[in-house]
Amino acid sequence: MSDATINSTRQQPEAGFGDYVALLKPRVMSLVVFTAAVGLLAAPVPVHPFIAFCAILFIAIGGGASGALNMWWDADIDARMKRTARRPVPAGKVTADEALAVGVALSGFSVTMLWLATNWVAAAILAFTIFFYAVIYTMWLKRWTPQNIVIGGAAGAFPPMIGWAVATGGVSVESVLMFALIFMWTPPHFWALALFMNSDYENAGVPMLTVTHGRRTTRNHIFVYTLLLAVLAVGAGFTAIGGPIYLAVAVVLNAMFVLGAWGIWRRDEEAAAADKYIVEKKFFKMSLLYLFAHFGAILAEAALRPWGLGGW
Predict the structure, then answer these.
(1) For 205, phi and psi rounded to 5 degrees?
(2) What is the per-residue pLDDT for 5?
(3) Is 50 exceeded by the pLDDT of residue 215?
(4) How much is the average pLDDT of 184-209?
């Protein structure tokens, strides 16, 4: 072994347990776990608590596998973005080969175990979700089209459908509505981030809408998608997954969300740059609360339904 190789080996940061946890994108995983659990608990078919726990665990592992595969493929992009430069692979704490091995191993494990613990439909949707995120979105859409977030948002929208399938063994209008809620929420959520992180995407060569069409067009898109999302979210309150609690939450939050999008739409770049995109950052943070609150309301309706208090 040469002196250069020895020095390089010594300088290589040693991966710790936390680095492998970070590889699984725990923040994203928390959203996957929560929405999948809501889908499972909101379903009309009861699931044994132990089976439910195992199902959510395997879904979480599948979500983590997607994150590892994403970091493996996107290491070059992540290294050029401030927001992602400290991730385990670009930081040199975990090698790309290790990330790939972890992603593939956890993908196979999670899908197989979910199939054995529940049913083939739930396992098949989980397998497709991992494939969609790792291949369709990460390898293709993200680097190819400014519609990457619009189409790719489907990957993050599947977890409640998986949870619903765990309980029912199939797909229904209710699970599709939960999917649609996340699917329509994803573009304004990520485009708001892109407005104040545009230089990151520019430096990395990612064709985000802000890069290919500019911030003005992105603001227009955020407003239009938020209006469509509001119609869908409030309308869901009158379906089987809704009820008075959900409807109240949806009306208040969507009014706030539309007002936030209106504020973004009215902004010009000089004002936004002057205050360091404070309005856009507030909208992005509110979008996180928005999704958790809607699914929390769906869960509340499901919890009260056995006592005749939830739903219509």
Answers:
(1) 75, 25
(2) 36
(3) yes
(4) 95
In one-letter notation, the amino acid at residue 96 is A
- What residue has token string 């309980």? 167
Please give the span between the terminal C-alpha atoms of the chain, in angstroms, as a whole number.
Answer: 72
| pLDDT tens sequence across 135-165 | 999 999 999 999 999 999 999 999 999 999 9
Average pLDDT rounded to a whole number, residues 288-294: 97
Could you read off the pLDDT of 162-182 as tens digits, one per residue? 999 999 999 999 999 999 999
CA atoms within 13 A on the CB side of 98: 13
Q: Token pair for residue 60?
A: 């979480």
Q: What is the 3-state secondary structure (H, E, C) of the chain?
A: CCHHHHHHHHHCCCCCHHHHHHHCCHHHHHHHHHHHHHHHHHCCCCCCHHHHHHHHHHHHHHHHHHHHHHHHHCHHHHHCCCCCCCCCCCCCCCCHHHHHHHHHHHHHHHHHHHHHHCCHHHHHHHHHHHHHHHHHHHHHHHHHCCCHHHHHCHHHHCHHHHHHHHHHCCCCHHHHHHHHHHHHHHHHHHHHHHHHCHHHHHHHCCCCHHHHCHHHHHHHHHHHHHHHHHHHHHHHHHCCCCCHHHHHHHHHHHHHHHHHHHHHHHCCHHHHHHCCCHHHHHHHHHHHHHHHHHHHHHHHHHHHHHHCCCCC
- pTM greater than 0.70 (yes/no): yes
User: What is the residue extent of each domain of the chain?
Assistant: 18-171, 172-312
Identity of the amino acid at 295: F
18-171, what's its fold?
Answer: Tetracycline Repressor; domain 2 (1.10.357)
Gyration radius (Cα) of the chain, Å? 21
Tell the residue number behind the tokens 């492998």, with chain if given.
20
- Check if the beta carbon of residue 123 is closer than 8 Å to that of residue 111: yes
